[in-house]
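Form 7-S
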Amino acid sequence: MAAPSTVIKTGTMGTITLVSGATTLALTYDMADLVIEGLSPKLNEVNAHESRGVFRGLSYGNRTYPTLSFSAWFTNFAGEDDTPPGSMIEFLTGLGAYDGNASTLGTGRPMTIDIKLTIEGTDFGDTADETIVCHDVYCTFGFTEAIDGNKFSISGTVYGEVVTDNNSQVLTFDEIS
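Output:
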């Protein structure tokens, strides 16, 4: 097993990629502020059991769903025509240039995609880059106009597993079986 990295990672070392089947879109104008919340060893509620006011134990309950959010500088809502590469919004919604993309949950389902964060490590002496992939993410977005630059805010709910991979060791966050 490789030693832990001694390099503190920052937003300048990461890349967000949107994935739908074989189609990918590496984001160019994201603001390096990706947040993933609700991760735990198992993506299930933990229920506390008590009787007569005394703690008796824990058990797993219903599935929980991590969330993610990030923002990006606005360049456009849609591409110039309906051919890739299109805009980030077209990819998230499966419209316009990406209307041929299928939901990661299957045809006829709400549009979900995989979102992958790659954190550069090898350029800084690590033995490998790190990745975290959120599978089957349903995204919504907002738009903000501002003097210092218009922005998109993207929010998503992760309906699949969350997988990290570092030095060929995989840590998976998923529901109990």
